[in-house]
Amino acid sequence: MESPAENPSKAAEYLKELNKIIETQQELLEKQKRRIDELEQQVAKLYHENACLQDEHHRHLATCRLQQGVPPAPPGVLSAIQENARHEK
């Protein structure tokens, strides 16, 4: 059996196949980069949405406390409770 180095036409065909593989891999990498960008944008949007919802929730809790006549929790108490809950999970 001849090696590609011994047969120039087989070597050229082999190089064409390798180039096709490289091109396909580059296209795949580009698709993956675009998808990563899309996902990063989605994460940023969700992070912002989550922050807004948390703020809205805190305002709602404060309103409920005012309506019930309960004094508001000191700053940092709720975040300390949340932090403890995260560590317990």
Describe this structure in words.
Keywords: Coiled coil. It comes from Hirundo rustica rustica. This is IQ motif and SEC7 domain-containing protein. Residues 11-56 form a coiled coil. With 89 residues, the chain is mostly helical. The chain has one domain (8-85). 82% of the residues lie in helices and 0% in strands. It starts with 7 loop residues before the first helix and ends with a helix. The model has no long low-confidence stretch (mean pLDDT 85).
Please sum up the structure shown.
By secondary structure, this protein is mostly helical. The chain has helices spanning 8-68, 77-88. It has one domain (8-85).
Head-to-tail CA distance between termini: 63 Å
Unreliable residue runs = none
Q: DSSP helix count?
A: 2
Round the mean pLDDT to the nearest integer and report it: 85
Approximate shape: rod-shaped
Major β-sheet profile: none
Radius of gyration, whole Å: 30 Å
Strand fraction equals: under 5%
Instruction: Tally the structural domains.
Output: 1
What does the secondary structure layout of this molecule look like, with pairings?
Layout: H1 8-68, H2 77-88
Main attributes of the structure:
single chain, 89 residues, mainly alpha, 82% helix, rod-shaped, coiled coil, IQ motif and SEC7 domain-containing protein
